[in-house]
Amino acid sequence: xxxxxxxxxxxxxxxxxxxxxxxxxxxxxxxxxxxxxxxxxxxxxxxxxxxxxxxxxxxxxxxxxxxxxxxxxxxxxxxxxxxxxxxxxxxxxxxxxxxxxxxxxxxxxxxxxxxxxxxxxxxxxxxxxxxxxxxxxxxxxxxxxxxxxxxxxxxxxxxxxxxxxxxxxxxxxxxxxxxxxxxxxxxxxxxxxxxxxxxxxxxxxxxxxxxxxxxxxxxxxxxxxxxxxxxxxxxxxxxxxxxxxxxxxxxxxxxxxxxxxxxxxxxxxxxxxxxxxxxxxxxxxxxxxxxxxxxxxxxxxxxxxxxxxxxxxxxxxxxxxxxxxxxxxxxxxxxxxxxxxxxxxxxxxxxxxxxxxxxxxxxxxxxxxxxxxxxxxxxxxxxxxxxxxxxxxxxxxxxxxxxxxxxxxxxxxxxxxxxxxxxxxxxxxxxxxxxxxxxxxxxxxxxxxxxxxxxxxxxxxxxxxxxxxxxxxxxxxxxxxxxxxxxxxxxxxxxxxxxxxxxxxxxxxxxxxxxxxxxxxxxxxxxxxxxxxxxxxxxxxxxxxxxxxxxxxxxxxxxxxxxxxxxxxxxxxxxxxxxxxxxxxxxxxxx
DNA sequence: GTGAAGGGCCAC
DNA sequence: AAACGTGGCCCTTCAC
Length: 591
Hints:
Blueprint: E1 5-8, H1 11-22, E2 26-33, E3 43-49, E4 54-58, H2 67-70, H3 75-82, E5 87-90, H4 93-104, E6 111-113, H5 114-125, H6 132-140, H7 160-186, H8 190-209, H9 215-241, H10 260-269, H11 280-287, H12 291-308, H13 311-314, E7 317-318, E8 323-324, E9 327-329, E10 339-341, H14 352-355, E11 364-371, H15 374-383, H16 386-393, H17 398-407, H18 416-430, H19 435-442, H20 446-459, H21 461-477, E12 479-481, E13 487-489, H22 497-531, E14 537-541, E15 545-551, H23 555-573, E16 581-586
Parallel strand pairs: 1-4, 2-5, 5-6
Antiparallel strand pairs: 2-3, 3-4, 7-8, 9-10, 11-15, 11-16, 12-13, 14-15
The chain binds a DNA duplex through helix 10, helix 11, helix 12, strand 10 and helix 18.
């Protein structure tokens, strides 16, 4: 395929190129960089295409480092990218957007992400890869050569092949979008794609913002845990060795305490009845009778703490900012939930000792907001169950209300145990819990558990209907959708009871979990638009929780904006159930 | 040496 | 143990 491009290396050419492109409705957009990390590398090329010809801007011609952010000669480029008039089509636009924000100093507006579009379509199609070359192959039936992607973009002189490659990636975006968009419309995915496209900018900004971790506090906590681990390891080693058949010539045989095989073996030699798994839930009943089991559980706990939440997380502190810039995958799960890695900021232990290490720097505050019982509210709204909705509308303690209903007592007579029981039941229902699991969870006999579930579902008959409908329709449909239209396809062998059961539970849970993700993403955009230009910075999200860092003086205003964004987003989806957000303003990520 | 799988466990 | 949904990280084990 012949590629037409113009290499741009002077202000006058850039200006005329940008005014040409201003007249376009769609612009293919791509960048080439010397690193994957905008805090480490250089923005080398910016490519803009109208689908016929590509403008390849050589950024070195306009300055280096921070100069680019303010260079007046780059204003036409900034204006074009931040204009809402033309749609900028990019593949995995979070990447290009981060580089543009950090090196050019502007936001890319009106983004169409062909990567996210392909992922959304793929959820309905089944497994497929979503790299640009894969998408081009699948949707256009053409082969795209990506070998130059990993070439040296820091070279003094870029080769003709490199520039041609750069141009090609941008020019093809328009055609890719056209084909993807036919499927987006046909599959009923326009609303969810809009939510995703609008969410890119907030996430790109959040990754650049990073979150501040008080290294000294973290190290203090780590020291405490490491010491506990050493003590527990020593004690456990001693207790386990007693059961090993023969001591070696060199004294007590060492058991690898992290080896399930070796530990199981040692426990069995001591007469502890372990078979199959050694996970905490299974061992807990044995802990009373066997001190060595209790010690193992203690060791596991501190080992997990010091291994998963120890020194390693400190290595993610970016020297340039002193903060942690994790990777967020916008469609991390088919339900639409985010996933997070390097490090995973969504799995920091809830204990204060850990969370309090994530702090606001001096003069700043953290505004922390989370949706209250959002998944149960979604279930109430989707199922339109009157008693369920009433319980939320009354504003009463929802779990206590459920307890009162299933135990047939007055709301003010509910004991803490009964409330806790109802809470576990409410959560279990969202996951499609069955009689057996519920019985084990609560210690009830199976017939008692069955009876309790029957009473529960009798209390909320329309919810029962909805769950049953989901379980039934998935058998023929093999799909489930959220309120935004996000779709997930299930693959299962209809003759395999456990696979069918899993698909049915997924069909119950996916619309609930996924609608929660829809709402959060919508909230992130509303928040982004409302805090732009203020001291407030998005720093973390954890499924139903948003953390914003702000100047202390602006904390109250930021809190109001965050609450409003979350409530508005929730109300766009939930028509019959009130949305509730809990807010905290603090110096650290804890209450 | 490296990578995948399995087990376990952290979050919501 | 698990017929309770979604992720990622750490460690061991084992194959290449």
